[in-house]
Amino acid sequence: MYxxxxxxxxxxxxxxxxxxxxxxxxKVESNPIxxxxxxxxxxxxxxxxxxxxxxxxxxxxxxxxxxxxCCPPGGKSLAEELGRKLGVSVDLSGxxxxxxxxVVREETCIGCVKCLRACPTDxxxxxPKQIHVVMQNACTGCGACVDVCPxxxxxxxxxxxxxRTWRWPKPLPVAA
Amino acid sequence: xxxxxxxxxxxxxxxxxxxxxxxxxxxxxPRRLYVPxxxxxxxxxxxxxxxxxxxxxxxxxxxxQGTLSAAVHAPTSGTVVEIGPFTAPxxxxxxxxxxxxxxxxxxxxxxxxxxxxxxxxxxxxxxSDRVAAAGIVGMGGATFPSALKLHLGHKQRVHTLIINGGxxxxxxxxxxxxxxxxxxxxxDGVRIMVHAIGLEGASIAIEDNKPQAYAAMRSAAEPxxxxxxxxxxxxxxxxxEKQMIQFLTGIEVPAGTRSAEIGLLVHNVAxxxxxxxxxRFARPLVSRVVTVSGGAVRNKRNLQxxxxxxxxxxxxxxxxxxxxxRLIMGGxxxxxxxxxxxxxxxxxxxGIIALSQRELGEMQTMPCxxxxxxxxxxxxxxxxxxxxxxxxxxxxxxxxxxxxHDCISCGSCAYVCPSHLPLTQFFNFAKGELVTRDVEKRKxxxxxxLAADRQARLQREAEEKKRAAAERKAARAAAKxxxxxxxxxxx
Lengths: 176, 491
Known about the structure:
The complex is a heterodimer of chains A (176) and B (491). Chain A has 176 residues and is mainly alpha-helical. Chain A is built from 6 helices and 4 strands. In chain A, the strands form 2 sheets. Chain A has a two-stranded antiparallel ribbon with strand order 1-4. In chain A, strands 2-3 form a two-stranded antiparallel ribbon. Chain A is elongated, with a radius of gyration of 25 Å. Chain A starts with a helix and ends in an 18-residue tail after the last strand. Chain B has 2 domains: 16-291, NADH-ubiquinone oxidoreductase 51kDa subunit (Rossmann fold, 3-Layer(aba) Sandwich), CATH 3.40.50.11540; 365-491, Fumarate Reductase Iron-sulfur Protein, Chain B, domain 2 (Orthogonal Bundle). Chain B has 491 residues and is an alpha/beta fold. Chains A and B meet through helix 4 of A and helix 14 of B.
């Protein structure tokens, strides 16, 4: 009986030690999913989701506090990708319509360069006392520039429909 | 020649006799022409004229931008009155940049004496350069720049050239009439292409519902044994590139592959005619044959029409018996609905079909009964009913698994569906959604990179500032120390 107790005790100590070593050696600094989801998000920390930046949003999404559809710059494709990643079903119904992009109203822009500094993706081009312009292909529609403009000259407007962006609509509902 | 088969296909009523009995008629020159800068797949051409400028027929008015683009030429002589947005020949009715030209009625070419060159003394590169300069695009409706296709041809070891005279779409007879009336020039265009690609020969495939065209082409090709004229059965969609390849060679173009990548090229007969004009006579593509047909048209016929003519002018010339219930540019199976008659004819316009209410018929959509007729009709071998179920549920990944990317939007499934379900419309919608998502994804990747770059730049700037401040501090300290020692020595 003593032999059995000794063997089991030894085994217990040895495995426990191994587990202890492994826990130290393979320590996980933070939740890897958070890092992965953060990498998928736009990274412009615009705050349209109501969170403090993209990594906070990633955490909130993983905990289920906010839906995966909360990122307007990411659009439908990002929402679907996130849904796949996190294994949640995605309701895209609220995401229809063209994306909104910033447009500078040239009549009232005074060229103060405040928006240039605020833009997280360097999408606004300009110089002091020159009218600024938004490069539409780099704008995420985050609205950071709208808040800093002293003359309310920047507006988020839906992207105009062109032959390049036009798509066939879904056919009208048919009998099931 | 051994022929093969492709699966599926349908036999829609041809309605060819409506318009193929009369010779190609030349439309009287319209007073005003509306020439869009984008009449092809790819990058829009850039206008090189200004309003008020006088232009001659065939003069370059918009230059190609890069290789996947096509030049645009003045279809007649006259004055440019405006360059601005005008309704595009597209179901959306959205505008496209259009060069509006008032004709002076003289129709004078920019080079009066047409110089006649021997195309067989030119190198392949020179030929594809000339084709590019003439702004030729695939005239069967796909409007892919032809020069690029030829260029691919002498780069990628093409082994087979097929000339598509299938014209499988109902109502359309423009290629039929062209082959009957200009068989020699079409054959010449084919020979030029064969020379440009460096092939031994080519096959011209003509559906058996065009016996006169077949006979004309056959006799025109008699002196050239390398050109084979092949009669193929009338089966829709025979004129589709991949299906034609499969029928003639037995090779199925793999999913996600262009036929040129596996050494096969398909060109339309009208494109061959345009290449003949461009290479032999340096005439750019400024007009084309258009079928005007459909139950609402009085005199159904084929017309030689300058590019940029409004559809309304065609109807004014041919006459209407009733208000068209639907206007279609191209054939009724794969053509595009156009919003009204004030849209211009472009390089890819094979026909203008004005359908009457009677032809349209009453279509009551019913539930899918899973009869499988669409599966039998699909020329690609897909299961349209399963695809549609997934698209309706917005399960696009599932639809891709069922082969959405291989769908050629030929409309065979919707044609045979006893429940009149708009299958093709569902697939077009799904393809559009996928494109939107792809565009979004690429933009996200781009902006993510921009944001990361900005963060890195801000960090670098902060570090530089810190370093500069430290250096200044050190310099000040050194100066102070030097002053102190100076004072000491003085004392």
